[in-house]
Design goal:
Length: about 80
């Protein structure tokens, strides 16, 4: 399968603020992206469910991802040396 660039979106909530964090990463399929997102959410929350992690004052929630084909009007082309 051909590799594609994806933008992943994370929701970060703290006691005081809430914000979104974006991450760009290369994957071969949307299934792979989803698996990574859920696995990474668990890692970022130290293996705790969001409800328990929130008691410590913050948590991360994976909100989804989409393929990036253009950035500021420039087409994205991935190459590997």
């Amino acid at each position: 399968m051909k590799q594609r660039l994806y933008e992943l979106l994370w929701e970060v909530e703290t006691d005081v603020h809430g914000f979104y964090y974006r991450e760009f990463k290369v994957f071969r399929s949307e299934v792979e992206v989803g698996q990574y997102g859920k696995r990474r959410e668990t890692e970022l929350n130290d293996g705790l469910p969001i409800e328990m992690r929130a008691q410590d004052g913050y948590y991360f929630k994976y909100r989804g991802a989409h393929e990036v084909k253009e950035i500021d009007g420039f087409r994205v082309k991935l190459s590997h040396p």
